[in-house]
Amino acid sequence: MEFSIIIPTYMEEGYIEKCLKSALGQKYDRKEFEIIVSDARSADGTAGIARRYADKVIVEDRKGIAFGRNIGARNAAGEILVFIDADAEIERDFLYFCHEIFLNKGIVGVTGIAKPGDGGVFQRFVYRATYYLVRFFNFIGLSLFPGICAAYRKEEFLMAGGFREDFGIVEDLDLSRRISRIGKCAVAKKACVFVSTRRLDKNLFPTVMFHIYCDIRYLLTGRAPAVYPKTEELRTWRELWTHVR
Predict the structure, then answer these.
(1) How far is residue 151's CA from residue 81's CA, in Å, rounded to a whole number?
(2) Which of 20, 27, 64, 148 has the fewest C-beta atoms under 10 angstroms from its C-beta?
């Protein structure tokens, strides 16, 4: 099997069905990819919805997106691990364009392009600007791939140690940076997903600044907060900073 699509979830019943349908709708040989949902024991209907569409649904008590992705990877049969966020919908030729890039055996990691699927002007600007920066940094040799839609060869993923589970944020940038020391990482400009901008609906400016702070802090010190709360569950923007150490 070529691809394992891994989707970590926690309380995502409002988004997971569209995500899974988009994965099933790939214009790609169905025998060549599987769909794995790794759920952190959601109290809503996430796991039940996932069981209707996914090939494997793994339910664990432990929360954390890095842990969820790693558990999915350990249960994956594919040679290439494709990590997709639960609130993203992948275009029908996403796997095909990833496949084209991975034909180069020297490529160990690929990111697609996440485009905003909703939101206001500033929310959409943030996502578009993020991926302009991703392309620029990768061009100068610094691979910093968001986990929204990124893929890695399983062998090199395991060699790199997977996602750091002690990181609550920037665990995705950290992995792409480490794996780029093993082989080349590339941007698949035609492999697109449409992602919800919901994380910027509440406390928009503080959330953006928090991400910028964490990214810069990681690049300068190699450190990151151990916990990153779901922004939808925050009562005030100050709670974002309570876990920064």
Answers:
(1) 5
(2) 27
Structural domains in the chain plus CATH codes? 3-241 (3.90.550.10)
List the 3-9 sheet strands across, edge first: 56-59, 33-39, 3-9, 80-84, 149-153, 107-116, 184-195, 88-90
Q: For residue 44, is pLDDT > 70?
A: yes
Poorest-confidence range of 205-209, 224-228, 237-241?
Answer: 237-241
Q: Which two tokens stand for residue 86?
A: 């639960």
Q: Which structure tokens are listed for 138?
A: 């990768």
Q: What is the Cα–Cα distance from 37 to 47, expressed in whole angstroms? A: 8
Look at the pTM and tell me if it is higher than 0.90.
yes
- How many angstroms separate the CA atoms of 84 and 148, rounded? 5
Q: How confident is the model at residue 134 (pLDDT cuts 50, 70, 90)?
A: very high
User: Quick check: 68 and 84 in contact, CB under 8 A?
Assistant: no
Contacts of 204 (CB under 8 A, 6+ apart): 122, 123
